[in-house]
Amino acid sequence: MLFSSTTTTPDTPNKSIESLGEHLSWAIELHAQVTQALWASRDPALIVLHRALKDVATEIETSAHLMASRITALGGDARDPLQVEADRLFLLFQGFGPTDIRQQLLAVVASLAAFGQSLREAIRQAVSIDDAPTAHLFIELSRAIDRRFWALDSHICLNNGEAEILSFAQDQSEAFDHQKPEGNQGR
User: Fold this and answer.
1) What pTM does this model have?
2) Cα–Cα distances in Å, from 53 out to 58, 93, 97, 112, 126?
3) Rounded distance, CA 74 to CA 112, Å?
4) Contact, 48 vs 155, CB < 8 A?
5) What whole-number distance in Å separates Cα of residue 1 and Cα of residue 84?
6) pLDDT tens digits for range 70-81
7) Comparing C-alpha atoms, which of 146, 113, 110, 142 is closest to residue 126?
């Protein structure tokens, strides 16, 4: 551990650095998963979904930078996420082809939900060790992830238990159908 001029007890930085490092690794893996889904959403009918995924990727990248900054502020060293054991990673990243956007979107939404839950647990841990700045960071990240989760989850429609992705074309055709004037067809 590097020298740091923090005013916390000696155990606090170690526990916070461990939690932050774990979440940093997960954020980097989640960014890779979202990026893969982003690449698969190139269909022009999915432009709204593509933009939502791009926003999620940007949010996660920003979150990773904030966690790495907090780790170094506590005197730690932000580690390469590839050094984390595979059994500690929780994201749903397997079992579908690179162009199966439906399965990728479902996996991304499930991963965002799991990551958000993990951040809420990290908030409780940071509060229990009296590390308010780390707890505040986790709260900020949890709010951001929850907003992005909602944005992506709104693109999923369940029909007969099977998930469908609402495309831009579907959204627009439904919007135009409801706006047709009833009486002024003679103009």
Assistant:
1) 0.73
2) 9, 16, 18, 12, 29
3) 26
4) yes
5) 18
6) 999 999 988 655
7) 142
